[in-house]
Design brief:
This protein has 111 residues and is mostly beta strands. It is built from no helices and seven strands. The protein has a single domain, classed as Thrombin, subunit H (Beta Barrel), CATH 2.40.10. Strand 5 and strand 6 form a beta hairpin.
Length: 111
């Protein structure tokens, strides 16, 4: 049985970013985030905790994101909206129809 998704609930505009490793010219590599695309999602807070690790405030405020299915979304990519960053931890097709994804995300902010 398929679940009904209200398209009107996808109100939050996000950018999808993937991380790429580029040579830094000194024998090492630097990480760069590249915009893959922009689209609307439903962003819902689920639970929360926060900690500081390596000068990064990692907020375990776990959010559930509902979005239309896209072939280019992967775990460890980031969604960004209004100065906030959400790392994709898991993704699943709740009714196995291929129409939309449910993503479990962790909010991560630079200190």
């Amino acid at each position: 049985m398929s679940t009904v998704l209200d398209p009107g609930s996808l109100k939050t505009r996000v950018g999808l970013f993937s991380q790429e490793s580029l040579p830094d010219g000194h024998g090492g590599h630097e990480q760069q985030w590249n915009l893959v695309g922009e689209f609307n999602v439903r962003l819902e807070p689920v639970a929360g905790f926060s900690r500081t690790l390596a000068r990064t405030l990692e907020s375990g405020i776990t959010h559930q994101v509902t979005m239309r299915s896209r072939p280019d979304v992967r775990v460890s990519m980031e969604l960004r909206s209004q100065g906030r960053r959400f790392e994709i931890a898991t993704m699943r097709d709740p009714d196995e129809t291929g129409r939309y994804w449910l993503l479990d995300c962790r909010e991560v902010q630079q200190v």
